[in-house]
């Protein structure tokens, strides 16, 4: 039997909540990847997650501050 829309929605929100509870680990992995490309970069988490006010529908807002403009055409796989 297929799941109802509300069951799927509940499962999705519970999954997202589990991910958001681990936001520090995720942000740290992003920061590590950014610093591999640009060691001088500063990486911050902003928004509801940083304030501790997230809900299951929230996202993780990550701000990357570079010391200079990136070189156009130069690409790195993160």
UniProtKB/TrEMBL annotation:
<dbReference type="InterPro" id="IPR043519">
    <property type="entry name" value="NT_sf"/>
</dbReference>
<dbReference type="InterPro" id="IPR002934">
    <property type="entry name" value="Polymerase_NTP_transf_dom"/>
</dbReference>
<dbReference type="Pfam" id="PF01909">
    <property type="entry name" value="NTP_transf_2"/>
</dbReference>
<protein>
    <recommendedName>
        <fullName>Polymerase nucleotidyl transferase domain-containing protein</fullName>
    </recommendedName>
</protein>
<feature type="domain" description="Polymerase nucleotidyl transferase">
    <location>
        <begin position="29"/>
        <end position="69"/>
    </location>
</feature>
